[in-house]
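Box 3.1 A note on notation
Throughout this textbook, protein chains are presented in two layers. The first layer is the amino acid sequence; the second is a token string describing backbone geometry. Keep the layers aligned when reading.
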Amino acid sequence: MTWYLRKEEGIRTPSTEKIGAPDGLWVKCPACNKPLHIKELMTSSYVCPHCAYHFPIGSKEYFRLLFGEGSYEVLFEEILPVDALGFTDTRPYPQRIQEAQRKTGLTEAVRCAVGKVGPHTIAAAVMDFGFIGGSMGSVVGERIARTIRYATEHRLPLLIISRSGGARMMEGSLSLVQMAKTAAWLSQYAKTGLPYISVLTDPTMGGVTASFAMLGDINIAEPKALIGFAGPRVIREATGKDLPPGFQEAEFQLEHGFIDLIVDRRELKGTLLRLWDLLCS
């Protein structure tokens, strides 16, 4: 039986010479499964051009989206986390911080800056989920509070972009008091009559939702962003009941009056500029 034998030797390519796509050039959209070139994705603000799925991005990408290259000054990077409680779970807290710093290149879960977006000079704080789930500890709360104070003293529009799992459990009550501190500074900022715009991205949960994230003069969310206090799994385990589908997504929050706008990330900068033109004129 020689039916399946190759009569002539084909052209063979040594495995060392085989050409493949370099790692990191292509990604697959988790929503529509379409392959996307990374440059195409960056051009579209990390939004799938086929189905409008919003890829999760970090503070560096949001800064680039808002400010462009180099038109801002980072603030309060000298405020660094410490292990005030000597907390250890499966690993010591300082080790977790060091790992997060090495992995993300950040010093904490929020970056704060002052810079120009179009004609407007603004103060901004942008959270980063890649750093211990974007959790709010004492340094995150202090940096945000100082950003609010900076905006108050310099009479600047204030922007906070939230992406967080909530208060940082490794700091106990020290993380919880950041809720009151940031809210108190926002009450002082409100006296300036300038706009505080809060942008809620996926996810915005826990103590962040229960404090500064929902206190904006205008609350904006990205499409399909998960917004709430406890997550769906925690609520289901506590109540023993199935929850309405999508009840913590941005669209449900908009329908029930908890947020003001849902804005595609590709339109975020333009929307912010129009709001500042209107509210700061």
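The chain has two domains: 21-55, 56-279. Residues 173-190 form the longest helix (18 residues).
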